[in-house]
Design goal:
By secondary structure, the protein is α+β, with helices and mostly antiparallel strands. The chain has one domain: 4-Layer Sandwich (Glutamine Phosphoribosylpyrophosphate, subunit 1, domain 1). Helix content is 26%, strand content 19%. The strands form two sheets. The chain has an eight-stranded mixed beta sheet. β3, α3 and β4 form a beta-alpha-beta unit. The structure holds glycine. The site of glycine has 12 residues, from β8. Glycine binds next to β8.
């Protein structure tokens, strides 16, 4: 049941999760608009929307190499064994999609995923075999653990040893509590750090996790999305979140819209957040309906832990965008013909405000912001 064609066309646009993604989508803007990018290392990406896929890939590659971003690529934090593993995906439609999970030697999950999408009939490769696949197709392997991440791991491991925590049961791990990804915004001394904004000042342990998700639309109306993440800091080795899986970290339905989700992958995966958002559009809902539906599904899971967060960004087929977050601290970056900018989400759900009168709920004005799709 596709929605009717949108009347207004917003032109080419890239949108990314968290303020650090502004630099990433800025780096991809010229690619989206025709310059050749560094994406598509396989040379296999010809065809409708391949330039858009190049732009998605360039944006995610930029974040992968940004050492100031502590949740993606080389700046990311390792698992509880002290080893890095990266997940990512790229998607142009439900039949043009692939993800990779648990890369330990290759820094660009979206590039490897694109190779899987364009050179195989499969949709998900994982672990050593995904790294081997990348090797066979000419991607150079490298060490992924930065000195900074190694130091953060050692701090975390020492706190964990001191706390006597169960090495497997992260639900008992007090060192993971108390923080969730909080975007300090552009220009902050914390840079792209969402988990360690106090690192070095208060000795705070990192917690929570997030992802770069990029949504794109080109001048021809093609849609595509990508996700790249190092996943939950100090995760159980082998843990995979939402980012490499269609419907979880990203979803694209040509002619309808696309979505990406970031934050606590276990929540996003459990409710198929990106699929739910796009399906809401497909059934005639507005962009804000799509955000609200995701928040409703999270509420239905019952009380959440303090570090849980989900941010979601939804775009319709005309390039109109809305975003929302389960809790404060989420920002979104946009690059279109009007330039680049970072903004807060249109809706912050704030479960802690439940029971308060509506007038006392922060973010209410944003909840009532008109849906751009409904604008004349
Ligand atoms: N959202 C990224 C992850 O949970 O792995």
């Amino acid at each position: 049941m596709p929605t009717a064609p949108c009347s207004s066309d917003r032109g080419p646009i890239l949108v990314g999760t968290w303020s650090f993604s502004l630099a990433a989508i800025e780096s991809a803007w010229s690619t989206l608009n025709g310059a050749s990018g560094s994406g598509d290392q396989s040379g296999a990406g010809q065809g409708s929307g391949s330039t858009l896929l190049d732009a998605i890939e360039v944006a995610c590659q930029h974040a992968d190499l940004d050492l100031s971003v502590d949740s993606v690529g080389l700046g990311g934090l390792p698992d509880s064994s002290g080893r890095m593993s990266l997940d990512g995906a790229i998607m142009a439609s439900p039949i043009r999609f692939a993800g990779v999970a648990g890369l330990r030697r290759h820094v660009h999950p979206v590039s490897v995923a694109r190779l899987v999408m364009e050179r195989t009939e499969h949709t998900l490769l994982c672990g050593d075999d995904a790294d081997d696949f990348a090797d066979r197709h000419g991607f150079a392997g490298q060490e992924l653990l930065s000195d900074d991440a190694k130091a953060a791991f050692e701090t975390w491991a020492a706190a964990r040893r001191d706390g006597g925590g169960d090495p497997i049961d992260q639900r008992t791990d007090q060192s993971l509590l108390g923080l969730r990804p909080q975007d300090p915004g552009l220009g902050s001394a914390a840079g792209g750090r969402l988990f360690r904004p106090n690192d070095g000042r208060e000795g705070a342990a990192p917690a929570g996790h997030d992802t770069i998700g990029v949504l794109g639309r080109d001048a021809s109306g093609n849609l595509a999305a990508g996700c790249s993440t190092s996943g939950l800091p100090f995760k159980v080795p082998g843990r995979v979140g939402d980012s490499p899986i269609a419907g979880h970290g990203l979803f694209v339905q040509p002619g309808v819209g696309l979505a990406t989700a970031t934050g606590t992958g276990e929540l996003i995966a459990g409710i198929c957040a990106s699929f739910v958002a796009v399906e809401t559009l497909r059934r005639g809902g507005t962009l804000l309906d799509a955000i609200r539906e995701v928040m409703l599904r999270i509420d239905e899971l019952g009380p959440r832990r303090p570090h849980h967060q989900v941010g979601v960004v939804v775009m319709d087929a005309a390039g109109n965008v809305a975003s929302g977050a389960y809790r404060p601290g989420f920002l979104v970056a946009t690059r279109d013909e009007g330039g680049g900018r970072v903004s807060g989400p249109d809706l912050v759900h704030r479960p802690e405000d439940d029971g308060l009168p509506e007038s006392a709920r922060e973010g209410l004005a944003k909840r009532d912001k008109p849906n751009p799709k409904e604008d004349p």
